[in-house]
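Homework help board

Subject: predicted structure for assignment chain

Our instructor gave us this sequence and asked us to write out the predicted structure in token form, then describe one feature. I got the tokens but I'm not sure how to describe them. Can anyone check?
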Amino acid sequence: MKRVFNILAIVLAVTFVLSTGLAANAAPAAQQKKIIMYMQMGGDAGAPSVLARTNGAKAAAAALGIEMHEQYSSWDQQKMIDAFKQAIAAKPDCIEIMGHPGEDAMAPLVDEAEAAGIVVTSGNNPMPNLEAKYQNKGFGYAGADLYQGGFLTGQAMVAAGLKAGDEALVYDIWHQEGRSRSSQGVFDALSKAGLKVDKLDVTQDVDSDPSKAIPVLTAYLAAHPNLKAIGTQHGNITSTLPKVLQQAGKKPGDVLVGGIDLGPDTIAGIKSGYIVASFDQVLYLQGYYPVQQCWLTKTYLIPGLHLDTGVGVVTPQNVDQIAPLIEQGYR
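My token output:
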């Protein structure tokens, strides 16, 4: 794992040097007009599952001289759609969107933006059909392979001490096909190991306000006293789970948690032993790469790049190495 993180550090350094070097040598025509970009960040400004992405995007915009407008949605699909409409109306050079509302909902708007000459790219949640349709015009993807990331998380949970026959819950957004790919990966990994796995849906109100998950999960724990594991691929739910377990009287190790992202509460949960693995999708790169994609396409007509930012999990064994960067908002 240490080798993976060292490689990531090199990638970040090389990306920065290359992009700033390219910016310094851009064609004069590209330098005459500042590139304007609208970018969806996902949740709320400063939230643990958003901060590193925002910082990555700001760093890329500063390096490349891009005027960036941030858009936040509290992970609400309709707000993402509305934000996309607002961005199109502003007639920028580029727009980065997320695929949570689904391709059927986003496709007409992508078509509209592309017809208006706006470069569209994506992050965090993929839209493979739209990516294939407009890749030659700069539609890329910066994010994890969602299913594989979830499966990796489930495998790490099993390795932390689960065994066949144990009861487990995967608590996530099952009612949205696009959002459930990663949670299905967790479910499949646990099931493959012989666990008895249940599913529980995260509703929209909980998605927007994870504190509302506390009574839901507290009730579930009371009804399932033999539960040995909870998996999720929802960043804000992950950070909430240690508090849920503490309030339910559970000690570290009683119920093993596998989650996603690396906010301060999640890191504290890993250090305390409540969270045994959190999928690291490197949110900083999910912010940096779409801005870089915009600049590369507008400056050099480079097609959309599909960049997998999901490389591993953070566990009690490697968390101390990563924690300082998380505290600084880079991881």
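Reply (TA_rk): Your tokens look well-formed. For the description, you could write something like this. The chain has two domains: 2-144+282-327, 146-280. That's the kind of observation they're looking for.
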